[in-house]
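Most newcomers find our protein records easier to grasp once they have seen one. Sequence and backbone structure share a record, each on its own labelled line. To make this concrete, we reproduce a full record directly below:
***
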Amino acid sequence: MSETMRHKKDHKLLGRFPSHRKSMLKNLMASLFLHEKIETTYTRAKEAQRLAEKLITIAKEDTVSARRLVAEYVPNPLRRQVVTKLFREIAPRYKDRNGGYTRVVKAGIRQGDAAQEAVLMLVE
């Protein structure tokens, strides 16, 4: 058994093609910012958490370029709602906080396929 190092492996594949994975993560982000709490599998929650932290950090500086950067990560039908809520309500809440805006809490095992579920939420 050879132990190999994880060079240049910076994200989980989540069993999806890159376009599907990107789309799924965008939808998770939109739901998280609209509802401030989502329930999904543990692995998806950890990947979405990475993106959410980055987007909130970008949103703390309310500029046109920051809004455009964040808008790239939001699906088109929800773009205006999500960007507005993120910049007006969510980001100002964390202006004095240096990271750690989200929390992942394990929520048990899913009955159908025994996947570990988790709740991804914004910290108060």
The mean pLDDT is 95. Residues 81 and 115 are 31 Å apart (CA to CA).
